[in-house]
Design a protein that fits this description.
By secondary structure, this protein is of the alpha/beta class. Among the domains are: about 180 residues, Alpha-Beta Complex (inorganic pyrophosphatase (n-terminal core)), CATH 3.90.1640; about 130 residues, Diaminopimelate Epimerase, Chain A, domain 1 (Roll), CATH 3.10.310. About 40% of the residues lie in helices and about 20% in strands. The chain is built from 21 helices and 24 strands. The strands form 5 sheets. The chain has a 6-stranded parallel β-sheet. The chain has a 6-stranded mixed β-sheet with strand order 7-9-10-11-12-8, sandwiched between helices. β2, α2 and β3 form a beta-alpha-beta unit. α2 runs antiparallel to α15. The chain is elongated, with a radius of gyration of 38 Å.
Length: about 550
C-alpha cells in the first residue's frame, strides 16, 4: 500500500519541495512505496522550481479516506448473457469464486449470478418431472459442451426449450411415452439402439443424441435429414451425456437483475452503511458510466486498511489532508510550533526543530543517512529553503539553514543568488491570481485563546499591485472567513525587496488598537521588518487575542 508524503493544505514551495525530497529519501531507505502528494495544484513559483529541477509535480490527492476502488479486487471473473451453466460453473470453480457479475459487451454490469442461483438451474423444480427435464439452450451449445459433432446440423444457434428424454426402456414403452410430448421440443438421448433411434426420427424430434461414441447409420442419417431431425454424436456414456445436456442450458433465467453496485469513488464508510442490510455475495464496483472495475464483499468493507501518511511542514490535523484523522501517521517532519491535535496509537518518528525551512530538516536526513541527493533533488530542497527564509533574510533563518543551503548549492551547481532573484520575480500571486486564489493559496488556520482564524501569506517584489487590488482582497478575506466559519482572516503581503509587509484583516475590533504598527486604512497595517508568519505575525496576533480574552473575562 502506498505511503503518501504530504505537505499541508494550500501548499507552498517548502511544503511541496520537502514532500518530494523526503519521498525520494524514503524510497532509497526503508519505504520504497513512498510517494509525494499534495492537496492542490502547485503555484507558479513552485511550478518554476519543478521545471528547473526536472521533477514531476506531486500527485494531487484531496482526500485520503479510502474509497471502494482502493479495496476492490480488480479484473474480476465475469459472465455474460448467452453463456451456459457448464462454462460459468467451470470458470467459478477454477477461480474459487462464489458469485460473478454479469456484464454486457461494454463491460457494464447488468446483473449478478451466485453459485446457489447457478445450481438452481439444474436442481430446481425437482417435484415436477416435466420442468426437471426442461433445458433452455441451443443445439450448438449442446454439441460444444459434449465435445461432440453433428451428423445432421439444423439451426444450431436457435434458442430452444427442450425436453430431455433418455431412451433406456423398451422400444414400445419409449414410443408410447414419447408421443405424449410435442416432437419439436424433444431431444432424445440413447446409445447404439436403432429400435429407439428409428421411432424418434420418424416422430420428428428436434434432435437425437447418440452416446458412447457411436454413429447413426447412413440410412438413419438420410431419414433424419428428410424428417428435419438434428443428430449429434457424443463421446460420453448416456448418463454423462444427459448431465452435460442439462448443464448446457443458458444462465439468463438465473441472473439477478436487482443488485446494488458501488461507485468507485465512494468512501468506504458510506459503502459499509449502504450495504450492511443488503444480502448480496459480492458488490460490483463501477465507474460513472456503470462499467465494471472490480468487486468487493462485505468483509472487505468491515476493516479496511488505513492509509499511511508522512506529514512534512505541518503537524496539526486541521492543516492536513482531508481524512488524515483516520489514517496511520508514520512520521512527522516540521519546523512549526506543535499544535497538539495529532495523536497516534503507537510511537512514531517525530522531528520538530526551530529551523527556517522543512527542506533544511530533509537535507539533514539525507546527510544522516549518508546519501547524496541528485542535483534536481538538491535544487528542490534549496528552493524550499529560499522560499521559507526569503533567501536567508527571514528572522526564522538559522545558521543550520545557511550551512545546509551552501551544501545544496555545491550539489545542484546553480548560482543560488541569481536563482533566488528569478524565483521571487516569477509567479506573482497578485499579478496572476484572482483575489479568492490569492487569499487561499498559502493559507493556514490557527486557534488561539478559543479564537479560530487564518493567516495567508504571499511574497511580492513591491506593493504596487497590492494597492490596486486592496478592496478586492479584503472582500475575498471576508468570504474566506465566512466559508471556513472563522472569526477573522488575515493576509500578510511581504515585500522581499524591502523586507517588510502589509497586514490586511477581514475585520477588526477595538483590540487591534494594541497593534503597535501604523494603520494605513480600515483593517490595514504597515509592518516594517516583519516577514515571518510563524515567528513574527502569529505571536503578535496571539498577544492581541490574549488581551481580548482577558478583557472579556474581566467584564
Amino acid at each position: 500500500m502506498t505511503t503518501f508524503v504530504f505537505g499541508h493544505r494550500n501548499p507552498d514551495t517548502d511544503a511541496i519541495c520537502s514532500a518530494i525530497a523526503y519521498a525520494d529519501l524514503l524510497q532509497q531507505t526503508h519505504r520504497p512505496d513512498a510517494l509525494a502528494a499534495c492537496c492542490g495544484t502547485p503555484n507558479k513559483r513552485t511550478e518554476y522550481v519543478l521545471k528547473r529541477c526536472g521533477l514531476p509535480a506531486p500527485r494531487i490527492v484531496m482526500d485520503v479516506r479510502p474509497e471502494v476502488i482502493d479495496l476492490c479486487a480488480r479484473e474480476p471473473i465475469t459472465a455474460k448473457r448467452g453463456e451456459v451453466f457448464y462454462e460459468v460453473y467451470q470458470r467459478m470453480k477454477d477461480h474459487e469464486v462464489r458469485a460473478v457479475p454479469i456484464v454486457d459487451e461494454q463491460r457494464k454490469v447488468v446483473g449478478l449470478l451466485s453459485l446457489l442461483q447457478l445450481m438452481d438451474l439444474i436442481f430446481r423444480d425437482d417435484a415436477d418431472p416435466l420442468k426437471t427435464r426442461t433445458v433452455k439452450t441451443s443445439l450448438g451449445k449442446i454439441r460444444e459442451i459434449l465435445c461432440g459433432s453433428f451428423q445432421n446440423e439444423l439451426h444450431p444457434e436457435q434458442l430452444d426449450e427442450l425436453l430431455v428424454m433418455v431412451g433406456a426402456m423398451s422400444a414400445g414403452g419409449f414410443t408410447e411415452r414419447m408421443q405424449r410430448f410435442p416432437a419439436e421440443r424433444l431431444i432424445v438421448v440413447c446409445g447404439d439402439r436403432p429400435t429407439i433411434q428409428l421411432p424418434a426420427i420418424e416422430h420428428g424430434v428436434r434432435a437425437l443424441v447418440v452416446t458412447g461414441g457411436y454413429a447413426l447409420s447412413d440410412g438413419l442419417v438420410e431419414l433424419a435429414k428428410s424428417r428435419g431431425v438434428a443428430v449429434i454424436q457424443s463421446p460420453y456414456d448416456t448418463a454423462t451425456t444427459t448431465m452435460r445436456i442439462k448443464s448446457s442450458q443458458f444462465i439468463d433465467s438465473a441472473i439477478d437483475t436487482e443488485f446494488v453496485a458501488l461507485p468507485a469513488k465512494q468512501p468506504i464508510e458510506e459503502a459499509r452503511i449502504k450495504t450492511e442490510r443488503i444480502n448480496e455475495p459480492i458488490f460490483p464496483v463501477v465507474n460513472d458510466a456503470g462499467v465494471l472495475l472490480g468487486v468487493v464483499t462485505k468483509s472487505d468493507l468491515i476493516n479496511p486498511p488505513k492509509p499511511k501518511l508522512v506529514l512534512v511542514d505541518h503537524n496539526e490535523l486541521s492543516q492536513a489532508v482531508t481524512g488524515a484523522e483516520d489514517a496511520e501517521i508514520l512520521e512527522v517532519l516540521d519546523h512549526h510550533l506543535i499544535g497538539g491535535s495529532l495523536k497516534s496509537t503507537q510511537p512514531i518518528r517525530f522531528i520538530n526543530e526551530p529551523l527556517g525551512s522543512t527542506c533544511t530538516l530533509v537535507a539533514r536526513q539525507f546527510r544522516s543517512a549518508g546519501l547524496t541527493p541528485t542535483p534536481g533533488i538538491a535544487l528542490c530542497m534549496a528552493s524550499g529553503i529560499i522560499s521559507d527564509t526569503l533567501f536567508l533574510r527571514s528572522p526564522t533563518t538559522t545558521l543550520i539553514d545557511s550551512e545546509i543551503l551552501s551544501w545544496l548549492e555545491s550539489l545542484c551547481k546553480v548560482n543560488l543568488q541569481q536563482y533566488a532573484k528569478e524565483f521571487f520575480e516569477i509567479g506573482s500571486a497578485l499579478r496572476n491570481c484572482s483575489p479568492e486564489e490569492v487569499v487561499r493559496e498559502d493559507c493556514k488556520e490557527f486557534t488561539e485563546h478559543g479564537i479560530k482564524f487564518s493567516i495567508s501569506q504571499i511574497e511580492e517584489t513591491g506593493f504596487d499591485l497590492f494597492w490596486d487590488r486592496k478592496d478586492q482582497l479584503r472582500t475575498a478575506l471576508e468570504e474566506l472567513c465566512e466559508d471556513q466559519k472563522l472569526q477573522f482572516s488575515a493576509l500578510l503581503v511581504t515585500d522581499v525587496v524591502s523586507n517588510g509587509s502589509l497586514l490586511l484583516l477581514s475585520k477588526e475590533s477595538e483590540a487591534w488598537d494594541e497593534i503597535n504598527y501604523p494603520c494605513l486604512d480600515r483593517g490595514l497595517y504597515e509592518l516594517p521588518d516583519v516577514v515571518s508568519r510563524k515567528k513574527q505575525l502569529l505571536p503578535l496576533l496571539a498577544q492581541v487575542l490574549r488581551s481580548t480574552a482577558t478583557s472579556s473575562n474581566r467584564s
